[in-house]
Amino acid sequence: MLHCNNYIAMHKKTSYIAVIRQRRGFPAGAVATEKGWKMTKTKTTETIGNVEFPSFEASKATDQFRAFAEKGVEQSKEAYAKLKTGAEEAQKAFEASYKTAKTASTDLSLKTIAALRANAEANFSHLEALVGATSLSQVIELQTSFLRRRLEMGVEQVRDFQAVATKAAEDVSKPLKGAVEKAFEQLKVA
């Protein structure tokens, strides 16, 4: 509970004047002086009735909200269309890459089978030649020539495998590379 006397009210009249007025029942316009309370003329404030607030028209707000929502929907549709197009292009690139990989793996498998067949035939023909050898010097000569031919054949097979694998890697990556380049170009434009 707040207790105020005249000395406090005189010292801090602006702080306590409203409290003193309310507690002691002083009329509005009473001001503390050194001798006591004095009635002064006070200005009356204007009422809120004279203040104009901006009018709010619900139809304009509804129209603005509708326009904003329609713009958002249209932007969403555009983004969805771009995303859909990009996804379809990526799918086509993956399908083309898969077909190319399948073809390349088939080619590599055929090369492997051909190399194994050539190696097996060379081994069998060498074995037949060794069986028909009549002297140790002839066996050594057959073995030396066989190893030299096998080494040359192995180097040639490795070159063939390398060429097929390099071509397969290029062919497989070509559709994906094209799709990625196209996507980056579209991002640069946007």
Largest sheet: 2 strands, antiparallel
Low-confidence stretches: 1-23, 42-47
Report mean pLDDT, rounded to a whole number.
77
The radius of gyration over CA amounts to 50 Å
Output the keywords.
2 domains; 3% strand; 4 helices; 190 residues; disordered N terminus; mainly alpha; two-stranded antiparallel ribbon; single chain; rod-shaped
Question: Secondary structure elements and their pairing?
Answer:
Elements: H1 6-11, H2 13-24, E1 30-32, E2 37-39, H3 58-131, H4 136-189
Antiparallel strand pairs: 1-2
Helix pairs in contact: 3-4
Q: Could you walk me through the main structural features you see in this protein, from its secondary elements to its overall organization?
A:
This protein is mostly helical and 190 residues long. It folds into two domains: 6-41, no CATH class; 79-189. It has four helices and two strands; from the N terminus they run ααββαα. The chain has helices at residues 6-11, 13-24, 58-131, 136-189; strands at 30-32, 37-39. A hairpin with a 4-residue loop joins β1 (30-32) and β2. The model is unreliable at 1-23 and 42-47 (pLDDT under 50).
A few lines on this structure:
The chain is mainly alpha-helical. It contains four helices and two strands; from the N terminus they run H-H-E-E-H-H.
